[in-house]
Amino acid sequence: DVSSHEDAAPLSEPEGPFIEKQKPTATLSFKTALYEGEASTLGGTVTRLVYTGEAEETGLSTEVLFEALPGEPGIFGARLIHENADLTKTLFKAQRRGNGEILEFCYERPGQYRMKKTYYFGESDPIVGLDITLENISSSERTFPLEIDYGIRPPSRESPDWAQTQAVVQTDKIEQADINKISKKGFLVSGPVQWSGVVRKYFALLMKP
To answer: 11: pLDDT confidence band, cut at 50, 70 and 90?
Structure first.
């Protein structure tokens, strides 16, 4: 279930600046009653996520929610704020656990920290669970502010779905902005965030801490 691709991952900051052979990325496929896709050792990210639809409507409600470009990291990449190393472009070690339905990715920066990312894919619910564990292995006390990338594959500008793509977030109220506004001015909110996400027509990808 683990396959190698020849798209070489860029060297992360902890691995450079020494000249060394770049290792190929590897992918792990997954499939449940509602989802199928692939996860990559590049950043420990999900590079392809397809909602396959309800059993009685298979093929009618199938939707490609995300698909990364070749050699690029996917969604659910985690980076540490104020760190030089971009962990979304760093190679993680991968393994399956349980009956193969749990994917685990690990990265260690020697003498600094160890990160473990564990994905759980809901068999009967449209949920992707992600646990991120950070262990401080340095000799000093540290905190690790975390940032997570996510997104949904945008339609082309010529598609009628373009105008129906929005970003949404709930603080003390629900705020939203369409894709045209975001592409011109961005979308910033303040205050504690309960959840955020992207909506495209009938589909949504929502992140809840």
So the answer is: very low
